[in-house]
Each structure stands twice: as structure tokens, then as C-alpha cells.
Amino acid sequence: xxxxxxxxxxxxxxxxxxxxNGSLSFENGRKNYRASILGLxxxxxxxxxxxxxxxxxxxxxxCGGTIPKxxxxxxxxxxxxxxxxxxxxxMTREGITTVSYQFSIKSVSDTSETNVDSIQPSEIGKRxxxxxxxxxxxxxxxxxxxxxxxxxxxxTELFIPLPKKQLLIGDTKKTSTDLLIAKKLASSQSRSFVFxxxxxxxxxxxxxxxxxxxxxxxxxxxxxxxxxxxxxHELFIINTTNSGHISLNAQPLVFKLSEGGVGAISSMMIPLxxxxxxxxxxxxxxxxxxxNMNVVLKRIVPGLTISIKDLGTQVLDNGETGSRVxxxxxxxxxxxxxxxxxEGIKKIVSILQLLIVVYxxxxxxxxxxxxxxxxxxxxxxxxxxxxxxxGKGQLIFTSHNLRPLETLDRGFIAFTTTxxxxxxxxxxxxxxxNNLRDFYYRDIMLGExxxxxxxxxxxxxxxxxxxxxxxxSGS
Length: 475
Description:
- Keywords: ATP-binding, Nucleotide-binding.
- This is ATP-binding protein.
- GO terms for molecular function: ATP binding.
- About 35% of the residues lie in helices and about 30% in strands.
- By secondary structure, the chain is an alpha+beta fold.
- It has 2 domains: about 5-115 and about 125-235, no CATH class; about 245-360, no CATH class.
- A 6-stranded antiparallel beta sheet has the order 2-1-4-5-6-7. The protein has a 6-stranded mixed beta sheet with strand order 8-15-16-3-17-18, with helices on both faces.
- The radius of gyration is 25 Å and the shape is globular.
């Protein structure tokens, strides 16, 4: 599947944070748009961030990386296991292939840093164990070409079905034994086995050294490679840590550059309260990113551009030459350090290059938690309108600002509910001439949907609680 473009079409979440059950389609069922936009709205603590967390989990799995320990605390308190299922469309010149990938996670004791049994259980940390991985796709050997299991690791063996195992990795005993060890190793290291380097290399080797590779083998291998490429080069997650760094006077820059036909992704943190020393190569990349970003920045914040000021060279710890740099803001023929700009400007700078890529490339998926943080609501609405109408990629975001409800097609908007067993819904009975923002407010007050969207508060009780708290604190 050369030049494949991957897009997430659905996410189903079980027992992650406060989402006991929730399924959300990312497709606009009303109209045909090149861009795929999904804005998720709802009251605080209702499961919006859980959606972004589920996509971060997906990225870690597809990249074969270690699942961070923080996810041990993300499993719902009433369950020992969280299960995530993702559906994709892989688009090529030949057509569209539907694929699903599912896995579960649980919290287990991390004994990797101890070598005695006398350590108390309370002193042993926790880590994530990823298990029961399942990939489904069209099965070519079936005359009806139906969706079926390609890889299912829910077995004491390597994986099932056995015919697909023999097709993907061959039937040599050594390969199977090596991969059984790799499977246990991946489990102990909080990594995906299906997307581990060991398993991928076995499949790649089988394709490469087959005298006459089976058409079915090449097809399945290309599906797996498409998902690997998507996770490593085309899926970006921006969570609230991004805004936290800005508050601490550090400028995050997340970007994608394409050089020589290969997509390069990177993120960089540049301190704002003092000059930073970065490698010369990194400085050249940042300069290129900023130059590209300024084309748009000066249009959305009239007259504003930024630059990277070179304050001289300095030898790095590894002996290489580095550059001492500072980020500078330019406006009205004046330049000031970027640290003196508003947090909203810094937020826009941190994500703008990725928004540019989403606008231009259909293969990119960008998920942003609290997109509206620090961004003027009118500008937010207009940016999203432009991307939805003319963009090509996929943008998934959460927000508290309701302005996009007035600028985006309602097929791009979903809401959280107060029901943990059915966390995500689309509004029904919305007429073409309804203002979705007003309609949402009305439903909060009247509760006209099949699921409650907002847990009502009592203003009198809130006022009384403020007064009681003030008396207790001696105010």
C-alpha cells in the first residue's frame, strides 16, 4: 500500500478514566468534506480528555514504544482493565480498506527494578501491561472478502488464527520461538507485541525473502506497515502539558517536515526566560519551521512574525557546535523577546505548523486537548471554519469555547453526556436553520435529548456554600 493515507473513523472506549462505555464516529454523516473535523464538547469531568488520552495510547502502541506509567491511573476505578478499539480507513489509489485495531491495558506490579523478595508490595511501583491485541481487516482468502481476524494475541500461543500466523511469519520453529520470547518481553516492557520491532522484522523478512511472495501476504503486511507509518509520522497528540510548559515560560514547538520524501516529526522545548543553547542542526530546522509559520501567523495576528535570534556559537557537552538562540517577536517595526507576548500568542505559535500541515495533507491526524485555551474565540471559530471547508487532513479537538458551534457544520460536533455508560453522543432533532450553540444551551436547560448532557447545578446552593466557606475561613 504505497502512498497510503490513514484516517481514524471511530474510537470505542471501555473503562478509561470516567468513560465506562463510549463510542464516537469521526465521520461527518451529513455532507462530504475532504477534511475530517471532530470537536468534542461537554461539562468539566465528563470524558473529553479521555478521548485525547485514548489517541495518545494508540500512538504509543503503533510506535512500539513503552506505555507511560501514568496510564495505570487512567483505568476506571471500578475496573481492572481498560479496552480501546480503533477503526481506520486506509486509502490508496486502488481504493479504501477498513481496518480495526483493539487492545486492553491493565496495571501490574513493576518488579523490574528489584532483585529481592523482601520489598513490601506498597513500595513496588506500577506499570502498564498491554494485552489481547486484535487486528481485523478484509480477509482475501474468503470469497466474500469479509472482515475477519488477522492477528489475535489472546492465546497462550504466539497468535491466532494459525493460517494467518504461518502466512505472516512462516512456519519455522526458530522464528516462532524467538517471537514467543519477544511477546513476553514486550509484555514486561509495557509495549505492543504486534507493533514491536521484533514482530515487524519477522514479517518484513518473510516478505523480502519469499521467492514469490503470496499476494495475500503482501496485502496484510502493507496494512500493518501503513498503521506503523501512521503512528510514527502522521499522528500528533497535543495535550494540556503543552499549555503547562507555556505557563512555565518554555515554548513548545511541534512540527513535521518532509525531506527527500520522508516525513520527519519532532518536538522541541525552547526556554523563553533566557537564551537557549541548541544543536546547529536543530537551529536550522527551527528557522525553516518559523519561516513557514510566519506566512500564516502574520495573517491571523495582523503584522506579527517571529524569528530565532542567533547570539553566537557554543560547544555542547558532546563536543559538537551549538547555537545560543532566543525567540523574538516582531510587530510594528519593533522586536521584543517572545516571552513578553500573551499566552494565547504562544499557544498559537506552538501548534500553528501542525495546523498548516493538517490543512494541506490528507494523511495527517492532529488531536488537541483544550484547543481554545488562550485563543480569542472569534479567531478560533474562523480558523476551524477555514480548515473544515478547505482543509484536507483530520483534526480532533476538545474545547470549552462554544464559538465553533456557530461556524462548523454540526456534523463535525459531538458532545459528552452525564451517563458513563454512554459518554459520547451527537445531538438529534437539530434543524438546518437551528443555531447549534443556542440549541445546546436550550438542551442543557430543558433536557430534550435521549441522554442528559449536563448535570444541573443549583445557584442558590452554590451561593450558600460560598457564604458558609467564607464564615469557616474567617472572611
